[in-house]
Amino acid sequence: MSNDRPTTGPDRPTADTPRRPAAQPPLLEIDGLSVDFRLEGSVVHAVQDVSLHVRAGETLAVVGESGSGKSATALSVLRLNPSPPCVYAGGEIRFGGRDLLKLSEKELGRVRGRDIAMVFQDPMTCLDPLQRVGAQVAEVLRHHTGISRAEAKEAALAALDEVGIPDPALRYRQYPHELSGGLRQRVMIATALVARPRVLIADEPTTALDVTVQRQILDLLVTLQHKHGMAVVLITHDLAVVAETADRVVVMHQGRVVETGDVLDVFDRPADPYTRRLLAATPRLEAA
Ligand SMILES: Nc1ncnc2c1ncn2[C@@H]1O[C@H](COP(=O)(O)OP(=O)(O)OP(=O)(O)O)[C@@H](O)[C@H]1O
């Protein structure tokens, strides 16, 4: 189905110019993960025996319809699923030679934000409405590095500038509600990246934004990834976004991985019937 090949985006890979960096050991590896939500009188097997990995400098997209277990998988990496009702029922999440599922809360607190950071669809899940945005970015650094207040402020201003926020000194003093949705998203990205994590997990980071701003935020994530060599796990239901930004893709359906591979291979020759249905339901790809 070569006509179905995604053609959106200027830096779309071709068979001759793969975006994937030379193979290196995975930075983050999920192996056989199972996650249940134990509710009164019932159990939801949200994630069942899921394995995936991502390398430095690589973008792995996780796609699937609503309820397929994408967020539950992503949140498991930093054990952010609400517990109860969440129970990590099996598997390992390996990072830096350790199983994150086995770390104490204190140990995991050092990984969160410093080694592995997350951004979400709604920035207000991360930002404190009552605190000035600059202080929130600076606080992440103070927490992880213990640098002085003045140094943290300087680094936070640089981080706001890096994510394309105009007049960082003015914005630094503002509260989240004083910013547009796009700027709030940029602040959340600054907060996530200020401590230079090695892995960024982005859960539907552009879904709530209008199309032009979506484009800008995606471009920003790609630019920052290239600049810092991060591994990115991008959770999305938007296959056009996957075509434009990801190296590899994992397709989830009903809590399981049904297909995984290079984006070009999977989109050109989907092996699983569910992947074929998902691709067929994306007119922007079909029309390409
Ligand atoms: N806190 C929770 N309590 C109970 N069930 C939950 C909870 N979080 C997720 N689930 C269930 O786990 C399953 C997987 O949900 P998950 O949010 O991971 O899907 P998703 O693929 O990320 O969907 P979406 O694209 O809508 O975010 C769903 O059946 C969902 O209802």
Helices and strands, in order, run as EEEHEEHEHHHHEHEHEEHHH
Low-confidence segments, ≥5 residues, pLDDT <50? 1-18
Structural class computed from helices and strand pairing: alpha/beta
Distance between the termini: 11 Å
Bound molecules: adenosine-5'-triphosphate
Tell me the Rg in angstroms: 19 Å
Largest sheet: 6 strands, mixed
* Strand segment count: 10
How does this model look, in words?
Residues 28-279 form the ABC transporter domain. Keywords: ATP-binding, Cell membrane, Membrane, Nucleotide-binding, Transport. It is a single chain. The protein is of the alpha/beta class and 288 residues long. The protein has a domain at 126-196. The chain has helices at residues 70-77, 105-111, 133-145, 149-162, 168-172, 181-193, 211-228, 239-245, 263-268, 273-280, 283-286, and strands at residues 28-39, 42-54, 59-63, 86-95, 98-99, 116-119, 199-203, 231-235, 248-253, 256-262. The strands form 2 sheets. Strands 6-7-8-3-9-10 form a 6-stranded mixed sheet, with helices on both faces. A 4-stranded antiparallel sheet has the order 2-1-4-5, covered by helices on one side. A hairpin with a 2-residue loop joins strand 4 and strand 5. Helix 3 (133-145) runs parallel beside helix 6, helix 4 (149-162) packs across helix 6 and helix 6 runs parallel beside helix 7. The longest helix has 18 residues, at 211-228. Residues 1-18 have low confidence and may be disordered. The site of adenosine-5'-triphosphate (ATP) has 15 residues, from strand 1, strand 2 and helix 1.
